[in-house]
Amino acid sequence: MITAEGVIETLSSMRNESQREILCRFFKTGKGDYGEGDCFLGLKVPQTRSVVKEARGKVALSEIEKLLYSEWHEVRLCGFLLIVEEMKAALPKRREPLTAKADRRRELAEFFLKHARRANNWDLVDLSCEYILGWWMLYPLPDGTMPCRDVLDRLAESSNLWEQRIAIVTTLELIRAGQFDDTLRIARKLLPHKHDLIHKAVGWALREMGKRDIDLLRKFLEENHRGMSRTTLRYAIERMDAQERQHWLKR
Length: 251
Known about the structure:
This protein is mainly α. 63% of the residues lie in helices and 0% in strands.
């Protein structure tokens, strides 16, 4: 098995000072910004993924937990990506019953939720939650019932920005499965939000839903566009033709 210490040592060996400065600016780590105080080694995502590829299936959850509580952004990312790999391994194979490995999937989802606030920047959220919580929600529990999706509402109603973003971004995987009700419900909850990172995420989810059901998106816009931020609206209508985009922007 691989320890958290070993993973951190490998990631630290790739440290890049010039890239670190770029990332600190990009992820808004200045005073008063959403990423205030975050620390970077200066790794690009493919570098972190290369470490994950070598370590997947070899790091216990107790060691992954240590990664999630690291001061280093890339180490936390590595921890969350390792959970994604564990969830992927726990999905039922083609000829297995859908309840196969259901206990493991529930364990991973609960583990993620317990430590969700450690996904304390938008990339940590976006690269993990839909593939952990989203996948978990699409498969039955050991008793054959489906996971309760009220957890998305609890996350959306949290006072924590990152848990709120997790609530809407998780629904992207549900959208891919042709399930839109959760996206619509969580989007409505988050429309009054004041933060740009939520505006963008809600618009992103609505856009992806609209790629699969444009009439449903139009109906949602008809009912809610006056309460949407300009950013959310622009993201939501991005795939519409120019004439229809102008129609919504002028209303």
